[in-house]
Amino acid sequence: MKILMLTWEYPPRVVGGIARVVNDLSKRLIKDGHEVTVVTYRDGNTPYYELDKGVKVYRVDNFMINANNFIDWIMQLNFNMIAKVGEIIAKEGKFDVIHAHDWLVAYAAKTLKQAYNMPIVSTIHATEAGRNSGIREQNQKYINDTEWMLTYESTEVIVNSNYMKSELQRLFGLPFEKINVVPNGVNITNYAGIERDYEFRRKFAMDNEKIILFMGRLVYEKGVQYLIGAMPKILEHYHDTKLVIAGKGGMIDELKRQVNNLGLNNKVCFAGYLNGKEVGKMYKAADISVFPSTYEPFGIVALEAMLAEVPVVVSDIGGLNEIVEHRQTGMKSYCGNSNSIADSILELLFDHQLAANIVKKAKSKVRNDFNWNKIAQDTHFTYQKAICETVADKQRKELMQEKETKRKRNEITNLLSFRKKQAYA
Prior knowledge:
Blueprint: E1 2-6, H1 18-31, E2 35-41, E3 49-52, E4 55-60, H2 70-92, E5 97-101, H3 106-116, E6 120-123, H4 128-131, H5 138-153, E7 156-159, H6 162-172, E8 179-181, H7 198-201, E9 210-215, H8 224-237, E10 241-246, H9 252-261, E11 268-272, H10 276-285, E12 288-291, H11 300-307, E13 312-315, H12 318-323, E14 331-333, H13 338-350, H14 352-369, H15 372-424
Parallel strand pairs: 1-2, 1-5, 2-4, 5-6, 6-7, 7-8, 9-10, 9-12, 10-11, 12-13, 13-14
Antiparallel strand pairs: 3-4
């Protein structure tokens, strides 16, 4: 199968979780014998074309002129993606399916579908309404409408959790059978052979301190503010703890002020953005990982922590609620509740046997349920559904056209016969 992936991020450009999903899925599909071409944005000095372990990766620049705003910038990027795919098709022929990742590539996907009669399978990784707890501003409405358009134009839609399936049905009125739940996954060999690096760990905490780790973007919906709010209670009962916040985002100044106001400057460390190797080292340095999101369609970072043998504490919402079983594969806390977060963390800090049991069961669950072999097969099945539906739709249109042609031919025959009878009369 020839598959075209459209995405605005692909390693080494990593903005959120889409880059990792597209990267891991594409490479697994290659191993399964498919041909995968990725068209994405060129960031920095990355090559315009590279063969990344069998995946053909084409990168495009944006326009030389500066866009008025982010939405215009995205539209300009879509124009260049369309042009690049046109060049590829002229040389190598059509693709069997277009896999579009989120609203950021919606216009390119729609145009290519109509120009070359290729079906779209879209993955909606998150929604604008979910990220912002509703639609209030004009830009949010535009993005929400674009998401609807992409799902409308898609033959099949993929989401990563049952929570997201319900959200798309509620927001866009999509038919139940059109939405396919295919979870995200992790490479199960990611942290194999990585041991705790004490020299690295000492950059953030003393040997006697337990590291509570947050890994992710520093934005409101990730809930870091509630984790910081839990620290006074945690420190009251277990003084030798240190909160390490790894990531970057627009809330960093606000979070630093919160830390300062609570008098936690010596107990909270902002580690900044970590590269791939540092992420592995940080997970191995941590004693507990916390993901207190207020909105989380899936939660791939929780899988990473579980695979790295770190007990996790998550909010009881979204995809996180589906991944973690309380006191079995992790601990759950009430969404947006600092007191509840503190209770779950303290239970893990004091109950070593509970933490050990959770680590064992969590790692087994990730290996069995969230490996890319299974995920790639489910995705491929969705591609097949989309292609079959497109062929069937084409056949239906041809049959309707044939019936219409036959009907018109009969009308003409009947009219001629009537006129002939009138002439004889």
